[in-house]
C-alpha cells in the first residue's frame, strides 16, 4: 500500500509500503552530441541549486507520447539548433533510485548538422563546445552529464560507428 | 521567494521563484571499493522502483554532523564489512539538478580489508564482487553507480596511487 502525500505539476510524493518517501518524476533524455571535430556540444542551464546554473550536456524531460529518442532529438534541436544523423542509446538508468523513480536515457548523437532554430536564451543561458576532457571538467557538478560523457567516451574509444542510422 | 509545499521525514518540496518544484534531499556518498584482486564490491539493495531491487555500488546518505568521507567509511563497513586504508574523492555532483538539490560524493576506496561486522541482510539483500567490466553491466540501471564506476576506472587506469592515505 502506498499513500500519495503531495501532488504537484511535475512531481508526486508517495509513502511506500516500507514507509519510504518516493518522488515520482517523468523520465528524461540526456544527449552527448559530438561533432566531426570531436567537440562536444554543451549548454549552461538555469538550475534550482546553489550555483544557480550549471554547464551540462543537453537534456530534457520526455513529453507524454514521445519516445526517449524523440525527446532527445527535440531537445538537441531546441537547446543547440543541431540535428544528428546517427543516434545510439548508451544507457537507461535511474538517476537516484533511493528516493525517485526518474529514469534517464543517455544518447550518443553523431554526424551533426547545425541547422539553427534553437530557442532564445532563457533557461538555457549559454552554449559552448569543448573537447571531451574539457567537457568532463566543465560538467563536473552534474553527475548525469558526467555519466553520459564517460559512457560516450568509452563508446567512441571502442571504435566502430554507432549502430542505428538516424 | 520560495514556498514550502511538502515537508516529510527526509525530503522537502519547495516552489522556487521561477515556479519550479524543487526537492531538498540530504547529500549521499557513493563508494567504489576495489580490492587487491581488482574486484569491485557490490550490493543488491531494496529500492522503491519498478524492479524492486538493484545491484549498486555501496552508498548511503551523509548523516548530520558527518563529512561525506566519514559517511563513505561508515556505509562501506555497514554494507560490506569492509575497511579501506586509502580513500580518494573523485566527484561531488548533483544527481538530478533539474528538480533536486541532492549532492553525490563519489569515493574510490582501495587497500581493503574485510573486517566483518556488516549489517544483517534486509534493505541490503545480497553482496557480491565482480571485475570492473562486469560491475558496469550489473549496475546498468543505476546511473550514480555507473558514473562512480566509470570515474574509478579512469582513475585506476591513469595509474599512480590515490593521494590520500587513510
CATH class call of chain A: Alpha Beta
Give the full name of the CATH homologous superfamily of chain A.
Nucleoside Triphosphate Pyrophosphohydrolase
Distance between the termini of chain A: 43 Å
- Strand % of chain A is 35-45%
Radius of gyration of chain A from CA coordinates = 17 Å
Topology:
The structure is a homodimer of 166-residue chains.
Chain A: E1 3-7, E2 12-15, E3 21-24, E4 28-33, E5 39-46, E6 53-56, E7 59-61, H1 68-80, E8 82-94, E9 103-114, E10 124-131, H2 132-138, H3 143-157
Parallel strand pairs in A: 4-9
Antiparallel strand pairs in A: 1-2, 2-3, 4-7, 5-6, 5-10, 8-9
Structural summary, described in words:
Chain A is of the alpha+beta class and 166 residues long. Chain A has one domain: Nucleoside Triphosphate Pyrophosphohydrolase (Alpha-Beta Complex), CATH 3.90.79.10. Chain A has 3 helices and 10 strands, in the order E-E-E-E-E-E-E-H-E-E-E-H-H. Chain A has helices at 68-80, 132-138, 143-157; strands at residues 3-7, 12-15, 21-24, 28-33, 39-46, 53-56, 59-61, 82-94, 103-114, 124-131. In chain A, the strands form 3 sheets. The first copy, chain A, has a 4-stranded mixed β-sheet, with helices on both faces. The first copy, chain A, has a 3-stranded antiparallel β-sheet with strand order 1-2-3, with no helix packed on it. In chain A, strands 6-5-10 form a 3-stranded antiparallel β-sheet. In chain A, a hairpin with a 5-residue loop joins strand 2 and strand 3 (21-24). The longest helix of chain A has 15 residues, at 143-157. The radius of gyration of chain A is 17 Å and the shape is globular. The termini of chain A are far apart. The model of chain A is unreliable at 162-166 (pLDDT under 50). At the A-B interface, strand 3, strand 8 and helix 3 of A face strand 3, strand 8 and helix 3 of B.
